[in-house]
Amino acid sequence: MPSDAKQNQQTMNRTVLVTGATSGFGKAIAERFAASGDRVIVTGRRSDRLEELVKNLSSHHGIEAYALPFDVRDRSAVNEAVATLPEAWRSVDILVNNAGLALGRDYFEDASIDDWDTMLDTNVKGVMYVTRAVLPLLRKPGGHIVNIGSIAGKEVYEKGNGYCASKHALDALSKSMRADLLRHGIRVTGVHPGAAETEFSLVRFKGDASQAAAVYAGYQALSADDVADVVQYCTGTPPHVCINDIVVTCTAQANSFYLHR
Ligand code: NDP
Ligand code: 8X3
Q: How many angstroms separate the CA atoms of 188 and 172, rounded?
């Protein structure tokens, strides 16, 4: 069988839960799985966007999609939302922990402590809450967890303090999940993108569009589709192969320090 056909056969009819699917990577990842014939559960706080996405995924790709709105920081809301999943959606093949954010870019002494709380609650505890709630539904063996980290979880950069701490913690969590879930045959992959043009910088700079645009000026950043390609590749390998960790940047970026504009 040609390798393309093999890959397609593997990627059909899985059930995938993607957090943070209202925008950016999560939306592109949900679209990519849907295009491969997988069913998707899409989550995020903005339920209007989720409903719209479900409609589009079903009509464009002819797959089933399910909207499950919740705030990943709210442990009860996470558990209650997952508990409401209908029986037909209670077996999950792939969990993509993507929901996350950066807030602010200031020296340590100037950074907002509320922003630190929000980033750690979302990027670290949110992933822990969602994974614990979804774990009973995850196929054993054969389930796969993909955690969207960042190059900020590999190196710290000036004024990155709270965000870098949260993504380093997530990197540790990915390694820890991989060790603890080994006995259940669950694969855990950390995907660590560099600069990518999404709503990320608009959120980070609290709606300041010119500050956000400046982040991506003068070079071709990654797109959400580029990151979706990587996630699709990592989840399409044969079942005995686990890509542990992958760092992906645009060609103009070497790491957090070197960016050629
Ligand atoms: P976007 O801002 O475009 O998307 C972020 C998503 O996260 C949205 O769907 C948002 O949904 C969701 N989200 C944020 N907070 C919460 C919350 N409390 N509860 C539920 N969902 C939440 O950014 P990206 O797509 O770029 O970011 C996705 C992930 O990738 C993040 O973890 C980010 O840290 C990481 N990343 C981004 C990079 C970049 O340069 N863009 C590079 C490396 C990593 P809603 O607001 O509807 O709740
Ligand atoms: C987003 C990439 O470099 O802004 O995680 O931290 S960076």
A: 12
